[in-house]
Design brief:
20 helices, eight-stranded mixed sheet, about 30% helix, globular, alpha+beta, Aldehyde Oxidoreductase, domain 4, five-stranded mixed sheet, 3 domains, Aldehyde Oxidoreductase, domain 3, about 750 residues
Length: about 750
């Protein structure tokens, strides 16, 4: 059995010893270096650019400005084809732009012999602007007369979608209903992956080759072709090991520009390596979303009618655009049952860095609002918050009309029960009641819901290739990408189990190369094991059938009585080993009469989806005079189906919990209201949570085998980033009696609310 056990990561040795090759390791040491000259205004037009002084600097090879580049508009989002127009990519980018839309926009680029010369040249370039008023807040941007970020979008609204069930206006007329209303704010945050964005490009045999730290090599290939106006077959993308992405690299960030710059120096290699400051300010961020919730409930806590308005701050360019806000309102509509609701999602352009995909794709924002709102309702009704959730949350048997997703198990209750037991919920609720001192403790919780992959909103396919080596091992290639999460190890386990060989005999080709790797849309949407599982199983069974056909010919045994077990051809009637898989592979390859290279390749279109559920429980200590929250204990309980590799699963959960704690307590990218400039775009001033801010992170699981999945698995990578922040918020409420509707719970925000409530 290879699936369901903790196998050592196949990349572990290379990564801990430094042997693993990342993009920087593969770049020619004599690569030209490119640096981008960026705008110093938030909104306006470039009138002129003076490069004369920069061109005099020794080592400068060429300077390209916004007036020189092709004028092909292109999208950047790593989406497969979307069936919903509101989710489809928006082509609103140019390689370099004269129409500046945020502080740091791409205006010109320098190509130099080394980094020192490139940086000097960037500092020597002078630009003249016609400056326009700018807007940073999404609600302000929607007002009549607000500065337009893109002229073709009225009131800066990129897109608006609605969802509705029943008759909300009629439902609220019921006698005795109690109305609950709240506004909830989540901040702009950055992914903070270890490896900044980096790529290099060169020309070879009339084609452009780009080596990039990307989650989506095949999609980047298409976007580079669109941006340069060249056939996609003239573009080759190579993805080596990646030092994290979390959705930031689910965009074509600077690959198109880098490819173009290489063409301007005769196809010489050109490297574009962003600094941490540039990664913060000029790649992608998580959408800041403002959510307005209204709930009408009976005195017993039953939800009768609900309303949601979501306003998402998109920043200057579409990137993933409306998909994030649209997905957020699906959480609103599904996790809590109600016969009458209305939900509206707006995505609004502003003069900030573009917001894109980030771990859990709009659900952390909506879940913070929802779970804060539900907790507030419980407090005001005097009902236990878990009792209120159990009364109203999605039940077994629920089936979504659109996606056809079905809830097969009582996962939420199972997860809640485990979390309560771990945190000693009832005991601590009683213990921490009626506190009055300056330092108080409390417990809180939050539930979450998540979809797996993107069907039916978007096309969902996976392709796989397996090649049998002469020693009985296999080479495995997939379009799904390893980005540090351990996907390659899970793929190897699934392939080994399907074929009946040992895990150690599966060699995963971790480097995706669009010239040779089967087409795949990449790493996102917690799709990797779920989606790849289908193509791995299908391809593995095709290869296994070929192997057993040859085994039949070589052994004269009936094919139906043969199987592959532990890398051997075994007669199932008595368990006798007939030959090793290596012996068969060698015999078949070198046969003088029937030589064959044994391999299989197939594509699987996935037309299913799966619900992933769970919860988080947190215990906190609040120092009211110091305005400080300390997390004492936290647990994440998750039903992600069958665990392919329990150890890797726990590691994924720990990472998500850490991200959620930072989101809840400290992280926020701040912009200067006078200039639009980011003020804390570095790891000193941006308060990323560290191990010093965490207790021991506890990950627990409920394993309900997902019936729609090839291996019983479903979304794991993203969901753990959802629930810890609202659980901490609710724990602070239970400790202090003060509700916080704005993240992060940093001293600044704590002080304002504590002072407002008279605690300090």
């Amino acid at each position: 059995m290879e699936v369901g056990v903790s196998k050592k990561r196949i990349d572990a040795f290379d990564k801990v010893t430094g042997r693993a090759k990342f993009t920087e390791d593969l770049a020619d040491k004599n690569c030209y270096v490119a640096k981008v000259f960026r705008s110093t205004i938030a909104n306006g037009v470039v009138k002129s650019i003076d490069t004369s002084e920069a061109e005099k600097i020794p080592g400068v090879v060429k300077i390209v400005t916004c007036f020189d580049v092709p004028q092909y508009k292109f999208p950047t989002a790593g989406h497969p084809w979307c069936t919903d127009p509101a989710h489809q990519d928006v082509a609103d980018r140019l390689l370099l732009t004269s129409r500046v839309r945020y502080y740091g926009d791409d205006v010109a680029a320098v190509i130099a012999e080394d980094e020192i010369a490139a940086n000097r040249a960037v500092r020597a370039i002078k630009a003249e602007y016609e400056e326009y008023p700018f807007v940073l807040d999404q609600l302000e941007a929607m007002k009549d007369g607000a500065p337009l970020v893109h002229d073709e979008y009225k009131n800066n609204i990129l897109a608006h979608t609605s969802m509705k069930k029943g008759d909300y206006e009629e439902a609220i007329k019921e006698d005795g209903l109690i109305k609950f209303e709240g506004w909830y704010d989540t901040p702009t945050v950055q992914h903070c992956h270890m490896e900044n964005f980096i790529c290099f490009a060169y020309e070879e045999a009339g084609r452009i080759v780009v080596v990039s730290s990307t989650q989506i090599p095949h999609i980047v290939r298409r976007i580079v072709g669109q941006a340069l106006g060249i056939p996609w077959g003239k573009v080759r993308i190579i993805k080596p090991y990646i030092g994290g992405g979390f959705g930031n690299k689910q965009d074509a960030l600077y690959e198109p520009l880098c490819a173009y710059l290489s063409t301007q120096v005769g196809g010489r290699p050109v490297k574009l390596d962003l600094t941490r400051e540039e990664t913060f300010a000029c790649t992608r961020v998580r959408h800041a979303i403002r959510v307005h919730l209204i709930t009408y409930a009976r005195k017993d806590g039953t939800f009768v009618a609900r309303k949601c308005e979501s306003f998402s701050n998109q920043g200057a360019y579409a990137s993933h655009g409306h998909s994030i806000a649209a997905k957020g309102i699906t959480a609103f509509s599904q996790i809590y049952k109600c016969d009458a609701y209305e939900a509206d999602a707006y995505t609004i352009y502003t003069n900030r860095a573009a917001a894109g995909a980030m771990r859990a794709y709009g659900i952390p924002q909506m879940t913070f609002a929802l779970e804060s709102h539900v907790e507030d309702i419980a407090k005001k009704l005097g009902i236990d918050s878990i009792e209120l959730r159990r009364k109203n949350m999605m039940e077994v048997g629920f089936k979504d009309d659109f996606s056809k997703n079905e809830n097969y198990f009582d996962s939420l209750n199972q997860c809640i029960n485990k979390g309560m037991e771990y945190i000693h919920w009832d005991e601590k609720l009683e213990k921490y009641k009626n506190q009055t001192g300056p330092i108080r403790r409390g417990v809180g919780m939050s539930i979450f819901w998540y979809n797996t992959a993107v069907w039916p909103i978007s096309l969902e396919t996976s392709a796989c290739r397996m090649v049998l080596n002469q020693d009985g091992s296999i080479q495995l290639q997939l379009g799904e990408t390893e980005i540090g999460q351990g996907a390659d190890t899970a793929f190897a386990q699934m392939a080994a189990e399907t074929l009946g060989i040992k895990f150690e005999d599966v060699h995963v080709m971790t480097v995706q190369d669009t010239d040779v790797t089967p087409f795949g849309t990449g790493a996102y949407a917690s799709r990797q094991t779920y989606v790849a599982g289908f193509s791995i199983k299908q391809t593995g069974l095709l290869l296994k059938d070929k192997i057993l056909e040859h085994a039949h010919e070589l052994t004269r045994m009936e094919k139906a009585s043969l199987d592959i077990i532990d890398g051997n051809i075994v007669r199932t009637t008595d368990g006798r080993v007939m030959m090793s898989l290596g012996e068969l592979a060698t015999e078949v390859l070198y046969s003088l009469t029937n030589s064959e290279h044994l391999a299989a390749e197939s594509t699987y279109q996935i037309k299913t989806n799966a619900y992933s559920f769970g919860c988080a429980f947190a215990e906190v200590e609040v120092d009211i005079p110091l305005c400080k929250v300390t997390v004492l204990d936290v647990v994440n309980v998750h039903d992600c189906g069958r665990l392919i590799n329990p150890q890797l699963a726990a590691a994924q959960v720990h990472g998500g919990m850490s991200m959620s704690i930072g989101y809840g307590l400290s992280e926020q990218l701040i912009y200067d209201e006078k200039t639009g400039k980011p003020l804390n775009n570095n790891l000193l001033d941006y308060k990323l949570s560290t191990t010093m801010d965490h207790p021991d992170l506890e990950a627990e699981f409920v394993e309900n085998y997902e019936p729609t999945s090839a291996f019983g698995t479903k979304a794991l990578g993203e969901p753990p980033a959802i629930p810890a922040a609202p659980a901490i918020r609710n724990a602070v409420l239970n400790a202090t009696g003060v509700s916080f509707n704005k993240l992060p719970l940093n001293p600044h925000n704590l002080f304002a609310r504590f002072k407002e409530e008279g605690l300090i």
